[in-house]
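Sanity check

After download, print the first record. It should look like this:
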Amino acid sequence: MNSFVALDVETANSDYASICSIGAARYDDGLVVDEWYRLVDPCDEFGSIQMGIHGIRPEDVAGKPRFIELLPEMQEFVDDQLVVHHGHFDRSAITKASKRWQQPPPPWEYRDSAQVARQAWPQFAKRGYNLKNLCAEIGHELEHHHNALDDARAAGAVFIAAMQRLGGDSLGVQRGLWPDYDQLLAGEVIVFSQNALLPAADTQFERTLRRQGARVQRQLSNSATIYVLSDEEWRSEVTTGQRQRAGQRVGRGQRLQIMSKTDFLAMIEHG
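Expected structure tokens:
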């Protein structure tokens, strides 16, 4: 626990490989001793939902390095340290961005500060374990939520506080709990809107999602990571109650990707 790197990323759209910013903070003996932040050209379109979350726009990344160009620099910063991130999103994004550029994912050892926090605080075991709530619990000021560097610092602070409560070694927590990140949908919890619901008889498709590492839920929850809208809902200028509630969850800090059914199916087909 004495030395590790906390990492966070933001994406341009609902594709996890579309990383547009990366933040990392090196911790030693509970203190931040070095920081690394880069804007990234995702070579992809920006979604309005994602721009509303992190505020990064196409003009901000114009001329910035691509992920493949920053990968060696990021690996040098991490070196051989343990990498801490909050929720599966950041690890999945690094893995998928690496594969997009035909590079092997960095061989880092990871810890999920959200999972460690769920063990450390009983009130967060099942719900409310987003960064904003946990930072409020430990008294850490999260200045700009969804800024990759600020979120990385916050993940590190949460990890340290959780490990102190557990009284353990970071390497002794979470062994054997990681999903297989070679699976396309590893760790995803998918919810379909009522209009995008799978047909009741289409159990084969649901089994396919599970084989790719996902869980399918019928209702939005704190564990949901992907919310799929029908194409009509996605294009509509009228915001449904469900979509509004999904947006509220994102505003509270939940890592929830909102996408159309067509985009979701394309993501599965093309990886």
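If your output differs, re-run the checksum step. Summary of this record's structure: The first strand starts at residue 3 and ends at 11.
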